[in-house]
Amino acid sequence: MRLLLQLKEILNGFKQSSIKCYFIYIKFDINYNINELNVLLQETKQIAKITIHSIPKENIEDIVDVNNTGIKYTTKRIKSRAIERPSLQGMVLNVTSYSEAKKFNLGLNRKVSIDSEGNIKNHLTHEKSYGKIRINYLDRIVGQKSFQAKWFIGHDKIEICKVCQYRYMCVDNTDIKKINKKYTKIFKCKFNPYTNIWSETL
């Protein structure tokens, strides 16, 4: 499978890196061999999850393996700049993440994303690119202070987030802007900490 060979080639390029885990997003193709993707999961322990997206509704029941927790299937079409907003399902609560969130941005700290066009970003949804993976060394990009700047903007420093009771367990990776010397998220959260209400509509 050409896709499998491409993935192996990309992952082999990071063998000597200190990257702890990968999240891979793949657009559905009827010719994909799920068994081969399972082999890749077993061979590469750093892969946390493979998400196969844009699956036609008529195909979803035929390919989903509910016993395979390493592969996620969705009919949702995922684009590089798809907006992901926080929800209770996206919260993490343990001593390690809590301690990290007290000093860093839990959703962006020590993370790097490469979109379908090869742009190196803090996250897929962000507009700013720090270079192209085909012509830039990833470690040099990630090592730049400008790339790491948002790692240190924890929720205690962000407007509205700083009064939210979920701020130390929220892994929201929405981009951050500084307006009038104050940090703010560019997309509105579903949760209103002042009313303690989650909203499905924004």
3D architecture notes:
This protein is of the alpha/beta class. The chain folds into two domains: 2-73; 88-198, no CATH class. It has helices spanning 2-12, 34-43, 57-63, 95-103, 138-142, 145-148, and strands spanning 22-27, 47-53, 71-73, 113-114, 120-121, 176-179, 182-185, 191-192, 197-198. A three-stranded parallel β-sheet has the order 1-2-3, covered by helices on one side. The protein is globular. The mean pLDDT is 85.
How would the blueprint of this fold be written?
Elements: H1 2-12, E1 22-27, H2 34-43, E2 47-53, H3 57-63, E3 71-73, H4 95-103, E4 113-114, E5 120-121, H5 138-142, H6 145-148, E6 176-179, E7 182-185, E8 191-192, E9 197-198
Parallel strand pairs: 1-2, 2-3
Antiparallel strand pairs: 4-5, 6-7, 8-9
Summary of the model, kept short:
The chain is an alpha/beta fold and 202 residues long.
Tags for this model:
2 domains; single chain; 23% helix; globular; 6 helices; 16% strand; two-stranded antiparallel sheet; 202 residues; three-stranded parallel beta sheet; alpha/beta
